[in-house]
Write a structure and sequence with these properties.
Rossmann fold; binds (2R)-2,3-dihydroxypropanoic acid; glyoxylate reductase (NADPH) activity; alpha/beta
Amino acid sequence: MKKQVVLYKKLSPPLMARLHEQAQVTLIEDLGAQGLAKLRGALPAAQGLLGASLRLDAELLDLAPRLEAVASVSVGVDNYDIDYLTQRDILLSNTPDVLTETTADTGFALILASARRVVELANLVRAGQWNRNIGPLHFGSDVHGKTLGIIGMGRIGEALAQRGHFGFGMPVIYHSNSPKPAVEQRFGARYCSLPELLQQADFICLTLPLTDQTLGLIGREEFALMRPESIFINISRGKVVDEQALIEALQQRQIRAAGLDVFEREPLGHDSPLLQLNNVVATPHIGSATFETREAMARCAVDNLLAALAGQRPANLVNPQAWERRKAAV
Ligand code: DGY
């Protein structure tokens, strides 16, 4: 008998066809009020779930007593109550690797756009305000040769270091849980403490996941350590930063600019003070949002889900303890 799968993200026709071949599929097209009601109605039968951008907490999971596997179409797993999933022996998988390069591209797009004021100055041209040669009032900052500071040296941090080191001749400094000798060798990167990085980097880039340990990691004290020339880039999660402290740092010119792809609350409120600031480049969480990468992520999630439902260990298992417990129970 085919297993029951609830999709809360539409997939491409080839992936939909593959899933239909192997499972009984219920598709929730959007996560508005109606979609959520449909999801709640489908959860009691669900054995597999696949989607993204939904907080899957214990309350929702309790509606799904038959659930065996959840495949997230994301690398970040902060939307999931991992302890509760593990307690229920539900396998959670994610989609690392396939989005690394694209997300690092987004990071560099934000570095370049905020340093060279690309959005602000393109808007000036569009508004018909390019009336004379650009002068110091509109100059930006160099990117090449400046110090690139990376907080969180995982896969995406490494891909950012690679771009900075080889593409822009940037000295790379980084802070993470522990030093990474291989990264130091490949990119001439130097490990330093968080305060040291905040004081020394020209570009301060956040690439670390949201966890209990990183929640609110960058707040008033940390912004106070940055220099007036510093540019702050966030491609990780909004909640790693105290957004009010960031707004104040930008308003008071404690830092020069920010390139932000993620926010405390998403979508970002139209009334956010961040949108009043010319020195902010804000994008709508586009880290991995290219045709190629989103398809690769969806394919990876389908592979993970089908493997889990077939009793195999998915390639990108987030909670191996759930797998061990299941095996022990057989
Ligand atoms: C992820 O995969 O976690 C990204 O933030 C989504 O683009």
